[in-house]
Amino acid sequence: MEPETHTEPIGDEEPLFSNLDLFLFSLIIGLVVYYFMSRKKPEPIPDFKKLDTPPVSQRETSFIEKMKKTGKNIIVFYGSQTGTAEEFANRLSKDAQRYGMKGMAADPEEYSMGELARMSEIENSLAIFCMATYGEGDPTDNAQDFYDWLQENDDEDLSGLNYTVFALGNKTYEHYNAMGKYVDKRLEELGAKRIFDLGLGDDDSNLEEDFVSWREQFWPAVCEHFGVEASGDELSIRQYELKVHNDLNMNKVFTGEIGRLKSFEVQKPPFDAKNPFLAPVTVNRRLNKAGDRHLMHLELDITGSKIRYESGDHVAVFPTNDSALVNRLGEILGVDLDVVISLNNLDEESNKKHPFPCPTTYRTALTHYLDITNPPRTNVLYELAQYASDPKDQENMRKMASSSPEGKALYQTWVLDSCRNILAILEDMPSLKPPVDHLCELLPRLQARYYSIASSSKVHPNSIHICAVVVEYSTKTGRVNKGVATNWLKNKLVNGHKSTVPMFIRKSQFRLPFKATNPVIMIGPGTGIAPFMGFVQERGWLKEQGKEVGETVLYFGCRHKNEDFIYQEELEEAEKSGVLTQLNVAFSRDQDHKVYVQHLLKKNKEHVWKLIHTDNAHLYVCGDARNMAKDVQTALYEIAEEMEGMTRTQATDYIKKLMTKGRYSQDVWS
């Protein structure tokens, strides 16, 4: 018999997994799935990073790639503070076309200057540097990074670079053309090949003539070096084309903004040269009691702007041209100034799409963006000559733009010495009727004006003070020329219509000593007193804080005590309270013989020498560079000779060492 098998129905069998097992198993599976799912989420991100497109910044900063792409072989870099070096760079880049070459002007701030080592990749390539010097031998703001790069890169090999330098400076300054000279020397040290001598432009004499003379010799040298010939006549080459907008939304039209459209309506910090702050004018008063001149004190309210400044900094303001001059230009050219236009660069690859913010109206361009009051440079006359219907006018305009001795003399007498601006030229040459768009293309940009701040942020954190003299003079043609910025500021009525000033701060090296116990000697006649009002306020504030403050000595000068002794009450009060330990004032015309600040320095030579030589005093000079600053320096040489028995060479070295150590600072202008 087979054994009996006992079977039970399946439904009654014991389950293989308990409910708990199933729950745990499901939980584990769920966690594993979740883990892998959550790990996979970031996977698409690396895919985006694999895009072949180079970063925007890399693409934009390569001037070599841009030159290759556009077939350019000449690049003109400019270090420019007031626009002149940029103007010269544009003229040189346009010149290249006349010699069968292609040029581009470039701002070194926008490019990677290390690429100079790659210039040999471009056949017959040349880099031209138009470098202005600013302040005490410093680079301009836009050339600072380039200057730092030159200083820091000793191992750079620039043997494939052909170059030349034109320097822009002013002989009245201590460090004449320092930046241009440095770039010229440093590029050679790094192996670059100079193909034409350094050009030195002197703004104290005739910068335009210096540039034209250098340029006349420069291009033949370039042609000889590269074996090319000029393509014939100097044709008028337009850089921009006109587009008239008939039905554009006026919300898209610039009305005077420096950078961003509507930036004057919606203000956003940080504020700088491309985004100025609209500061309300809270005080505008005349400082002098009598006399023909108008010396003024203004206060700008910077509440809520987050703008910070220190004593010795500069405030920059963007002025506008006199509406009467603008209207007269429109009248003489027979144009509707309220037409909305754009001037578009014919070179689509250029970083500079327009000569000024576009679209805008001719009225806005001539009011806010273009310089219509300075005598035009020779290239402007040359380009406009074609629009004179009188052959004699055409001939004279072309002659003035040439490098011939008679042409230079005519430009000097008829334009410069007579202070003829573009309006005066159009009035005195009735046959000259240029198209307004070409005129707007040629005129230089209206630049910001800089003033030494006459306040201390320790005392006035929400206010910036300006001290200035209104410029107004008669010319040889019988016209009255008015300074753009000072007359514009003069008319800024407190709480009046449009009583705001577009402004920003530029930092300065003109600083009080780090140690408050160091004595200071401040020398500032006329409006040169401006930064010292801030210094006096700050020394007073330090004393109020219980700090020990060294001697604070001021040498001020003006014409007459009863006319233009500006800030008299404030200064006398500061002396009375002991903030100013000595107030010395030279009234130059209150006696038979002229008395200036340098005479008072000599008179007090024992005290002056003790402060400098024994007490480690810091010296500050502010004002006129051409005469006053030099005369003060000479007086200090003489004091060193008389008090210490030095020779002139020793005295000169002694004063130079004070400058090097930062104990002799100048904030001067010519």
Polypeptide structure, described:
The protein is an alpha/beta fold. The chain folds into four domains: 63-226, Rossmann fold; 267-318 and 448-508, Translation factors (Elongation Factor Tu (Ef-tu), domain 3), CATH 2.40.30; 320-447, NADPH-cytochrome p450 Reductase, Chain A, domain 3; 520-668, Rossmann fold. It is built from 23 helices and 23 strands. The strands form five sheets. Strands 1, 2, 3, 4, 5, 6 and 7 form a seven-stranded mixed beta sheet that branches. A hairpin with a 5-residue loop joins strand 16 (472-474) and strand 17 (480-482). Helix 11 (378-384) runs antiparallel to helix 12 (391-400) and helix 12 (391-400) packs across helix 13. Mean pLDDT is 91; it is low at 1-14 and 40-59.
Looking at this protein, list some descriptive labels.
670 residues, alpha/beta, Elongation Factor Tu (Ef-tu), domain 3, NADPH-cytochrome p450 Reductase, Chain A, domain 3, 4 domains, 7-stranded mixed sheet, 23 strands, 19% strand
Classified by CATH, the class of the largest domain is: Alpha Beta
Number of strands: 23
Taking the alpha carbons of the first and last residues, their distance comes to 134 Å
Structural Rg: 33 Å
Instruction: Give a short account of the largest sheet.
Output: 7 strands, mixed
Q: What's the multimeric state?
A: single chain
CATH topology of the largest domain: Rossmann fold
Proportion of beta-strand residues = 15-25%
The unreliable regions are: 1-14, 40-59
The percent range for helix content is 25-40%
Structural class: alpha/beta
Number of helices: 23
Which homologous superfamily in CATH is the superfamily of the largest domain?
A: Flavodoxin domain
Shape descriptor:
globular
Count of all domains: 4
Please tell me the CATH architecture of the largest domain by its name: 3-Layer(aba) Sandwich
